[in-house]
Amino acid sequence: MHTIDRISQLRSHLWQAKLEHKKIAFVPTMGNLHEGHLQLIDRALEESDLVVASIFVNPLQFGPGEDFNGYPRTFMSDQEKLMSRGCHVLFAPSVGEMYPTTNLSLTLVSVPHLDSLLCGKSRPGHFTGVATVVTKLLGIVQPDVAIFGLKDYQQFLVIQQMTDDLCLPVNIIGAPIARAETGLALSSRNGYLSAEELDRAAQLYACLVSCRMALEAGETDLLKLEEVAQCKLETIGFKRDYFKICRQNDLQAPTLDDNQLVIVAAAYLGKARLIDNIRFTLTCRV
Ligand code: AMP
């Protein structure tokens, strides 16, 4: 595996592969890699001849008071994991390499109808930071496909919309959520939790599953279901952010005709803000 920290070096390295018409897959990450990230690498290997992963903790997507400085940085072990999983190139630029002029970007990319709700409401500017850095990374790597985890479902929709609207020549693929045996979605931020909090954290997924079962059993009062789940989470010790039943395609409240649904949730536990979701097709509506 080649590890590269300069944009110009990455471009010359990928030039030969492009001349040979090799298919390139790209997996952007912020590092502190776990099995969820590595399954994106597996998917990228299936989709391409050459896999490029990136590790970049993007300051632009962190708000004031968020965990940018404390975000876990485990570069050496990440490098090992990527290498043993078969990744071909690791791009790990510095903040100065990505944002040379001002430490931030002078050009911003935003997807207004998606980026101001749910996580965007709790983290103003977050998705603009994500869309901007992903646009830059796609411009640098110029992959044929890019793989994103469906764990960050709103992020996945933002990126799909952004690449469609800007006519970026890349196919965006969503990969399934990797979970611990307890059901807890794997996340770098799970490292902020104590062993006892980790046990409780699994209840976030349990609440998503119960809500889906209630919908499948014919419950139509969505606000009631959302409130029941929020109260349950609070009883367990979570601080509420949101718990919403939405349409899959635009994260709006579903009408009775919508059956492609996603239940999305975010909640604080100890020092961590956890997010998760469950997507499904509702077959029975009473
Ligand atoms: P991050 O390093 O948190 O920015 O995540 C990098 C990529 O890994 C994003 O596309 C995430 O959606 C994806 N990812 C993180 N956790 C998981 C997970 N548990 N399952 C699947 N994909 C994940």
Task: Draw up the topology in text.
Layout: E1 2-4, H1 7-19, E2 24-29, H2 35-47, E3 50-55, H3 75-85, E4 89-91, H4 95-98, H5 112-115, H6 119-122, H7 126-141, E5 145-149, H8 153-165, E6 171-175, H9 195-201, H10 203-216, H11 222-236, E7 239-247, E8 260-269, E9 272-281
Parallel strand pairs: 1-4, 2-3, 2-5, 3-4, 5-6
Antiparallel strand pairs: 7-8, 8-9
Share of helix, binned: 25-40%
Number of strands: 9
Shape: globular
Structural class: alpha/beta
* CATH topology term of the largest domain: Rossmann fold
Radius of gyration: 19 Å
Largest sheet: 6 strands, parallel
Q: Could you tell me the mean pLDDT?
A: 96
Number of helices: 11
Largest sheet: spatial strand order? 1-4-3-2-5-6
- Residue share in β-strands: 15-25%
Q: Which architecture of the largest domain per CATH?
A: 3-Layer(aba) Sandwich
Number of structurally distinct domains: 2
Are there runs of 5+ residues with pLDDT below 50, and where?
none
User: Based on the structure, what is the oligomeric state of the protein chains?
Assistant: single chain
Q: Termini distance?
A: 55 Å
